[in-house]
Amino acid sequence: MKRRVNKIIMASLFAAFACLFTFIYIPLPLGYANLGDVIVILGAFLLGPLYGVLAAGIGPALADLFMGYAMYIPGTFVIKALVALTFVILYRTFSRKFKANFVVFVLCAMLSECVMVGGYYLYESLLLGYGFAGAAASIYGNCMQGTVCAIIASVLHKPVSQLLANINK
Fold it and tell me: Which of 16, 27, 77, 103 could form a disulfide with 61 if both were Cys (CB 3.0 to 4.6 A apart)?
């Protein structure tokens, strides 16, 4: 029971951080990247498939609500949850076949961010009515955001894991 309560608390914190980090922008050539996906990936890594996926969907969807992008809330919830689920599945699969290391983490993070890029492309083109050509305009920015967030999450995953392990002692 205590372990479950701890997971729920951690998932709530990761959802809140994912929401908050979505408001933090890094300027890039021809756009910017928000850092919400850093927390999406770290939450998936640390919390696993159930709680990591819920935190990944809820936090960024709340950010869309707070920023006034209501039309993106359902898409963001599903897309970010799928990013987290993809990461967990890939990381667990690759970690069994290869020794879990920085390269494995980066690869899994980058591949899971491809879900974000493709997910928003499909959501914007099919459900928001932008059409395939109109939705293609967001591919570059989403690729840049995914790359930046995957790299930052990869750099932070060891220190954050150690910090949480020390807290839970």
Answer: 77
Taking CA atoms, 32 is separated from 4, 5, 92, 125, in Å, by 37, 36, 31, 21
Could you give the CA distance from residue 4 to residue 9 in angstroms, rounded to a whole number? Answer: 9
Instruction: Quote the CA–CA distance of 15 and 53 in Å, as a whole number.
Output: 10
Pick the closest to residue 79 from 65, 61, 93 (CA basis).
61
- Cα–Cα dist 104/1, whole Å: 33
Q: What is the reported pTM? A: 0.94
Which of 56, 73, 55 lies closest to 12 in space, CA to CA? 55
At 76-111, the pLDDT tens digits run: 999 999 999 999 999 999 988 888 789 999 999 999
